[in-house]
UniProtKB/TrEMBL annotation:
Substrates-to-products reaction catalysed: IMP + L-aspartate + GTP = N(6)-(1,2-dicarboxyethyl)-AMP + GDP + phosphate + 2 H(+)
UniProt-recorded name of the protein: Adenylosuccinate synthetase
Record text on subunit structure and interactions: Homodimer.
GO terms, biological process: 'de novo' AMP biosynthetic process; IMP metabolic process
Binding of Mg(2+), residues: D13, G40
Gene of this entry: purA
Residues the entry annotates as binding substrate: T300, T301, T302, G303, R304, A305, R306
Entries under HAMAP family matching the protein: Adenylosucc_synth
Gene Ontology CC terms: cytoplasm
Cofactors (names): Mg(2+)
UniProt organism field: Thermobrachium celere DSM 8682
Length: 428
């Protein structure tokens, strides 16, 4: 494994948490390298379901070191709430098991407030953010006015930076959005306390990861969101504010590209997305409703119903190219069981011309009409499959076609929500 990356190959919600949890058994270290608590990873072990947002999916193993890298933005309250949740669920978390980068940026109350107020101001042109302050925090990071975890550990540094930021943000909150100003003393006191609580977890995680890889340990990098939500390569502006693609690992975890040996793209056997933006294969009929209900397509973080559609191989091939994917993990093959005819998008018709690439312009993408190839369906027997040979013959054909179209082997197949309903069918 050495340095193995797991990314979402669609619009997120592909089942990355499940696949990361599955692969974490063979890893020594599991790392989140971007995003924040706007992510939602659901992991099901035996008869128990865990919902994670900020903490890496490897946390369910007692012997794995979990790392929150510098590319992640951290809401301290959400962090400690998640720790409490895990403790209640019987998952022990200590500073020996979980560490946080001293270079990670901190989500402040004004980030969350501005996030919500700006969405309200956009009206029906809203982006559909989770309102958790992720975008405004990344804005401050790149504007070079952000507050980092290391700043929380120094009261004087925090005070100096927070005074400047609160004064500036209060003007925006009041004069631009008509909101209620924040109180400096209250925010300062709260975040000084968070700093002290965080202190035992804080490390220079780049050093830890470098030493781990150099010593031969296996490191698993877990992306949040998906390729089509990448700030550069997604359906901009309906995207997240970071780089979920494999290229985001080096910057977000502080390692060199030569330390990444493989990249697995996680993809549902169909396509979903949450929020606004074009979606060429979206289904607006009973079939879309069937997939949503059978697959329980509702957001882990927001609870929002996901838009559902047929598998879009144009998107998947795009993800393979952008992230240099070496293999694919196909999830929710069981959700399609019982459908007589299953369609797969193999190209777009744009203004009378057939294209096999993903356009940058949303206006162009909105005009794209999917070109479908039809497959015979399969029955519910796939849910009990333990090996590739156990799968229904039509399901095998479906998977082989995905490999053929994308030029990328399928290494992992999931046929149900539980950790045990996952099979490795090719080496990765």
């Amino acid at each position: 494994m050495s340095g193995l990356v797991v990314i979402g190959a669609q619009w997120g919600d592909e089942g990355k948490g499940k696949i990361t949890d599955f692969l974490a058994e063979g890893a020594d270290v599991v790392v989140r390298y971007q995003g924040g608590n706007n992510a939602g990873h659901t992991v099901e072990v035996l008869d128990k379901k865990y919902k994670l947002h900020l903490i890496p999916s490897g946390i369910l193993y007692d012997t794995k070191l979990c790392v929150i890298g510098n590319g992640v933005v951290i809401d301290p309250k959400a962090f400690f709430d998640e720790l409490s949740y895990l403790e209640k669920e019987g998952v022990k978390v200590s500073e020996d098991k979980l560490i946080v980068s001293d270079r990670a940026h901190v989500i402040m109350p004004y980030h969350k407030l501005i996030d919500r107020l700006s969405e309200q101001m956009r009206g029906n042109k809203d982006i559909g953010t989770t309102g958790k302050g992720i975008g405004p925090c990344y804005t401050d990071k790149h504007e070079r006015t952000g507050i980092r975890v290391c700043d929380l550990l120094n009261k004087e540094t925090l005070k100096e930076k927070l005074e400047i930021n609160i004064a500036a943000k209060n003007r925006i909150i009041k004069e631009v959005y008509g909101g209620e100003e924040l109180n400096f003393d209250e925010v300062y006191k709260e975040y000084v306390e968070y700093g002290e609580r965080l202190r035992p977890f804080v490390k220079d995680t780049s050093v830890v990861l470098y030493d781990a890889i150099k010593s031969g340990k296996k490191v698993l990098f877990e992306g949040a969101q998906g390729t089509l939500l990448d700030i550069d390569y997604g359906t901009y502006p309906y995207v997240t504010s970071s780089h979920p693609i494999s290229g985001g690992v080096c910057v977000g975890a502080g390692i060199g590209p030569t330390m990444i040996t493989n990249a697995i793209g996680v993809c549902k056997a169909y396509t979903t997305r949450v929020g606004k933006g074009p979606f060429p294969t979206e289904l607006f009929d009973e079939m879309g409703d069937y997939i949503r209900e059978k697959g329980f397509e509702y957001g882990t973080t927001t609870g929002r119903a996901r838009r559902c559609g047929w598998l879009d191989l144009v998107i998947l091939k795009y993800a393979v190219r952008i992230s240099g994917l070496t293999s694919l993990a196909i999830t929710k093959l069981d959700t399609l069981a019982g459908i007589e005819k299953i369609k797969v998008c193999v190209g777009y018709e744009l203004d009378g011309k057939v294209i096999d690439y993903f356009p940058a312009s949303l206006e162009d993408l909105e005009r794209c009409k999917p070109i479908y190839k039809e497959f015979e369906g399969w029955d519910n027997s796939v849910e009990g499959a333990k090996t590739f040979d156990d799968l229904h013959e039509n399901a095998k054909k479906y998977l082989r076609f995905i490999e053929e179209y994308t030029g990328t082997r399928v290494s992992i197949v999931s046929v149900g929500p539980n950790r045990s309903q996952t099979m490795v069918i090719n080496k990765f």
